Amino acid sequence: MKVYLPLGIERSTRVVQKDQNPIWNETLMWYLDQELLDNSSFAIVKLLEWGTKIQNRDFGSVEVALGGAAEKPNVMMIKKNQSLRNNSLQPTGASGIEEFTLKENEAPQVPAPTSTTTKELSNKKQLFQVRVIIIECRQLQENNVKPVVKTFVQNFNETPLHLFDQFITIQIEMGLVYDSPGHAMISKWLSLYDPVNLNAGFKGYVKVTLCVLGAGDRAPDLDRPAETGDLESNLLQLASVPAARTASLQLYIYRAEDVPQIQDDTVTPFTAPPVDPLSISVDPSLEVNFGGRVLRTKVILGDTNPVWNQVLCFPMQEEGTTYRGRVLMELRTLREPIPVQKIEDIPGETVKKMQYFLPQFRYGLCVVFYSATMLADITEPIQFEVSLGNYGNKFDETCKPFASTTQYCHAVYDGNFYYYLPWYDTKPMVTITSFWEDVSYRVACTNTLQFIHERLKKNLDTLKTILQPHDPLVAVVWKKLQKELVEDCKKPLPALDIQKAVTVLDKQLWKLRVRVLQQIGKAAEKTNWKTPLQKLIPKVEGWLNRIASVAVETQISIPDVMIWMLLDDQRVAYVRVKSQSIMFSKDGPYAKGRLCGKTHTLFLKGMQSKMNYDPIPAVLRVRMWMGRMADCADFMRCCEGRIAVYAETYENQKKTHGIWGVMDLMPHPNFSDVTGQVSLPKDTFQLPTGWQWDSEWAVEPQRRLLLDKETNYSEVIQEVYENQSRQPSRRWKPARVPYSNASGVPAPRKEDILCPPGWVFVEEWKVELNRAVDDAGWEYGVAIPPAEFPHSWNTAEKTYHTHRRRRWLRKRFRNLGRETQQNQMAAFLQLHLDIKVKEDVWEYAPLYGWRFHLQRQPDDVFRRRCWRRKLAPVAPSLVAPIFYLEGSLGVEVGDRQKKKKTEAGRKDEKEEVELEPPASQGLLKKNTPLLYCVFKGPMYFQLRCYMYQARDLLRSIVKGTADPVAHVSFLHLSHCTHVISGTLHPCWDETLLFEDILIYGDPQGTAQDPPIVAVEIFDYDSGARSNDFMGRCICIPMVCLDLNVRSIPRLQKHPITRNEEENGYLMAAFELLLDRKDGSMGKLPPPTWKVGVYTIPKGIRPILRLMAVEILAWGLRDMKNYNLMVVNNPSLIIECGGESIQTTTIRNFQEYPNFSINVYLMKVYLPVDEDYSPPIELKVIDHRDFGYKPVVGQATVRSLSQYYCNPLEESKVHNLPPREIDQLQIMVLEESERKEDRQAQHLSH
Q1: What's the whole-model pTM score?
Q2: Interhelix angle for 504-526 vs 440-464, to 10°?
């Protein structure tokens, strides 16, 4: 409904959908200002239909006199049964408007925010008033909260540009409030966060009303009720929350089919009967409601099969994508004669039946971290956390603490490109116990169906690789597929008879699944392998889709397992694992999760993604197990190492006046955790129930420090800064700290710096001049007391400068003849946890929080050593004791609080009782024991990567071509190929050898689930700090445990992706060979060494033959400008298989666009197998001044088979593809030929 006043202002009600008797109950208000109503005033009320073929279909209008309202202000004027008329003042036949009221106020009220007109503001100082009203709070997380409600009013005299960029203390931008309707946000919810620790999660919600008013703005009506009480729909995003905590739910709406066609008389009851009774009307639009927000697509007029192709985006906070609780609900569909939208109470009998599904059981979750690789250059210590719902979340104070986090660890360089965590034979473990409903039978059913689906898909993929319909392999592959599918379909699904809490949906799903499997099994038995291949494949695909449709289970109430990567208690990356995929089941090996008790690879996702290169934060190789506590004996059978549980504390000391002690150690306690923040004395540790001490406190062997930040580096630049100072108008002299590092920490003189063991200096000290310094390498600054050094440095010397410094550098190399990487690794692995070491083994650092090291340096001020004490279970048990460590070790926080509590049933008597603090609050920082899985020794493997070529890489926007290089990462090692310049189809023809790879665990498990090989391709740029990322592919190596039965791998196509889009493919093969260290690897020597690389050996490398490529290059046409310059002197370069030829240069492209020589012959060795044939690349370069030759255009001929012809077969007619040339180019060619004829005639004369 729309209402018009003579003032020229229009007001509209909301749209009431699907209602023949609409009720609005809305108030529309106008500001009259100086134009008051009189006896001649009237209003026009129009009734319109929304979303029809004719936009805003007019049902009619009515004029309402406003004279009565003008004569009697503040009195309601009720108008009933107003008849609607058309433009000819004839009745439309509609029943009209039943009732509405009018009222004029003498003192005009402030309009609703939706009707306030925003005015333009000049950027000069003005008066503004800011109002903040705290209305309500919900879900406050702290205990003993005593909230105080306050109203904030403050006046400002500022420019709009400056004021609107400021924040209220609750972090809402003022400009956002002022730009809102009515310059106000009324009854909006804000989520509360700790500003110091945003990753601790939200602390509750607060409802506020915000107003930012300028001079002359009317304040809104703050007493009016809120439009809706829905928290989600009125929830605003805090400006202090980083972008990493936000997410966007994107719903892609493509099309709809068979939308019901409704007759006009059922849609538009107010209009007269339609002239054509057969006419139909449907104008579909899709509406989506999510989190209190409603979005709808555009209206498609008169189409029963609408096509929208729109994306609906719902912004939400990051907690909305993780666990935020559970809701128990039931969905029913009932047939009623007249459905009515209503809300009723659930009968008591139904609620009692629901209690039958509520009993919970104790579950155990254990994760063993085998490796963490492909890390970036991270200086902070890294920690991983595992959570299941709220269980295991170290930032959640509502649950008991668990051993859900790994020990802090620093990343180590792998010698090429990435970093890894040096866990080696001591793998960290985490355990969590939780309580959930019994969903084992549902998990068993869906896991069984997924196993059948995966095995059928694997056989189908093998069937699709057969190209020839009459290939004998068709019968072999089909018989294997048929046999396995029939066997799988005959396996019984877990029965529901013995289950207690079974729903109606469980019973119906079980019947449907059994029926589908029976039908597929019978159809598979009847199908013969002689059926044409083009009919077999669609039939199997249909079976696959039917199994996938019934394998979905919606009643698994256990949330996903989350693995978080933490840096300084900040969550930076995560990965999800479905709980049913790691769930154990007693119903057989097919009923348990496919990842249960198996080592597998997980790729973490970053909290924020970049535009071009979205790096993998980390690659984890883990073994996970989850199940009922009664079944945890199965976990002990699949655990490959020895479990060790330790309590840990660090003894800290500081050097004061040359003496080590605890003086001036604050704020760091004498004994603390690894961060140095939490006090953990030895005598305050508490034994968990069922555990006892197994040894005395002992110093831990400093194994992790043997692999310092220089591990795997072959070249290091040693630096030291020389500092000088002076008084004004005086000469320079050595400063009070003559030598220091870049941060100003004192360092020894450069002459006193010794070369570390295993290294050798290759040059003398020299001053660095390749930066912003003067000719002598000095940079100058002014130090403001009490600072010792300036905060900024300048190149030019001034008379007021008081300090200067210069950087001395000296390069050193690792002495490979004295200590190799293998020897260093062997020494590292020989230090086991059971070896006793001296208690005077300390680790040192110049500042607390820096990376500690074993070798003491002159500038070290802090030192610490790690004390550990082993725990053991009191008595053997059928249940794994590691699952009983929740809320175990910790320190009591202060004195126990005392509260007065009235006991139930005693109204007249109060007594003071001492309340036990919750377990999570009685433990300081939730310090829990550390769990490790210790292996006896590794198995040695060798990985061979046969990198042949990459195809169809995405070109650079700037260069138009690329210089690709591939970085190959496998566990804790990585290598790279050589750089191929100027191509998008690089052919490396190189073998990368990864020797002495340490893999822990059973080799058979490695063969079943091998570690992945990650290949990342970059565009190499020697002049840039970083290379442009071109794509990534994930490959699985072929594992060989016995060289006597080794099969030669075959090059395969691996898709390359970038930003989830395909970007070419990689032709490569990977094999992982077990090296038993018995000399058996001598049977398989390394490939041939040629031009600095290992080539691909025969049998894997494609067979080549000499071929001739004949090119007819006539000329160039339609060349566009390049870098705003006309292409004037182009030439063509043809490249194929490492060979290239170049045509003659066209001297004046605008006048004569043809080459002087048109036929070219290129001899090249090409593979016999067409799948390996390289493409032909065509590049056009422009010869410009000063030798500049940019690539101004290029094309690729990918398939060479269509151009192949055998010159010895003269009788055969070769079907060459037609030349792609249009009529315009033919006319240009004919004109060029005529011009050549005229030039030839002129020369002959």
Answers
A1: 0.70
A2: 30
